[in-house]
Amino acid sequence: MASPFSIFRKNQKLMLVILGVMCMLAFVVLPSLMQIMRSGGGGGSQVVVTSKFGSINEAELLGMRRTRKITNKFVAELIALSGEVDPRRIPAEPLGSSSEEDVVTTMLLARRAEEMGVVVSNDAVRGFLREITRDQVNSADMRALIGQLGISQGQLFDALRNELAARASRPC
Fold it and tell me: Contact, 63 vs 21, CB < 8 A?
């Protein structure tokens, strides 16, 4: 009986070609197929919320929740840096929950504020930050904290502007 290695030695060029083609297919085609299967057959993300301000799909909702978590973390750590409040008394989510319902409500209120003509400037955001820290944290410390969170100052200000606009349009 012939050894299995003799069969390989006899057909090694063909087997290496087949193995090479299979590897190329695995690296080129499989990721695309996996993505299509994961998203439910193509066509983009599924719409989860529709309002008069537009639709929100799964990916946008995930991004909104991530932004809320980062913004909450920034505000909580900023309050802790100020030293004005006992760190144990700082809420984990000072701007509100990162639940789907809360981030969608905030988005709707912010769009409503925009519709009403409310404009939140960078000065208003800076004023909010001075207010929550009682002007005890300098801008260098704030920039360092922003750097630790892995976002830009512009992204953070946009998120805070959105939160402040939503607060401004809340019914009394």
Answer: no
